[in-house]
Design a protein that fits this description.
alpha+beta, four-stranded mixed sheet, 4 helices
Length: about 100
């Protein structure tokens, strides 16, 4: 998967603006059941929002690192308050979001 350029991040943020959070990360953080649910949802939708509970917010850096460590190559596009925007690209023939290559 391509690393996200600033232009790609801006595009994905604009596409995620109207989305509602589909997963909530609770006090347990990133558990195996959360990971399985995350993979199920993100493989279908490509771009999702996750909400961090107030208790989970205290460990948001650990949670973000745990999500990035998932071997499925999920990108954190942005964090706005208690909400994470997550993206995992599909193959080019099945993707909804065409990202540009390059450093611009």
């Amino acid at each position: 998967m391509l690393p996200l350029t600033p232009k790609n991040r801006k595009y994905l943020k604009s596409q995620a603006h109207h989305l509602k959070p589909v997963l909530i990360i609770g006090k347990e953080g990133v558990t195996p059941s959360f990971v399985s649910e995350l993979l199920l949802v993100i493989n279908n939708k490509e771009l999702i929002k996750c909400k961090l509970s107030k208790i989970a917010w205290e460990n948001h850096e650990l949670i973000e690192n745990a999500i990035c460590a998932i071997p499925e190559r999920i990108n954190i596009v942005d964090r706005i308050g208690h909400t994470l925007i997550l993206f995992k690209s599909k193959p080019l023939d099945k993707t909804k979001f065409l990202l540009e290559e390059g450093n611009t």
